[in-house]
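Technical note accompanying the year-one report. For the benefit of new consortium partners, we illustrate the data format agreed upon in the data management plan: each record pairs a sequence with a structure-token string. No post-processing was applied to the example shown here.
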Amino acid sequence: MAVEAAALSATTPDPETRAAATRLRALAKASLTEMRATLGLLNAAPTPNTHHDLPTLVARATATGARITLTDRTTTPLPPSTSRAVFRLVQESLTNATKHAPGAQIRVLLAERSGTLVVQVLNAPPPHPAPSPPPPGGQGLHGLSERVALLGGTLTATPTPQGGFEVRANLPTTAPRAGGARRAPIGRETA
């Protein structure tokens, strides 16, 4: 894109088009620089976080003023992919809860039920209305739904009757079979 914009800028007789192409080239170069920096951070990052790192995640969030309780009732060793997915699920859910319900009590629960790991992140309604609505989000819940489905699990993300919000995943405690994953829409759970 940067090369095409530079070529357009050098060959067009129209000054407005030349100015737009120059701006486009500058944006493309800045984006490439940011992408390289991000990839450098990812390559330099230590091993991915797992569900064993949740206490550290919760402690960091609590240090910023979030009110979070973590209850981990798991005893079965989880496959590495599941353990990483649990961390990511809780991380994204805490981010959403603190963004959309600032000051609300948040409860994180990990429990095993009949060969299934249940991960629940439940936030109460915010104690005070947010001064302004938060900026629109990205693809966090959609991405989590895909990740959970790849592991053979299901994800629901729904408002609670009390005015809070619940994210709940049911994941197998064993590694998924090849090709056995089902995709469940967000907000509904398949049987």
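Partners are asked to follow this layout when depositing records. Confidence is low (pLDDT under 50) at residues 179-186.
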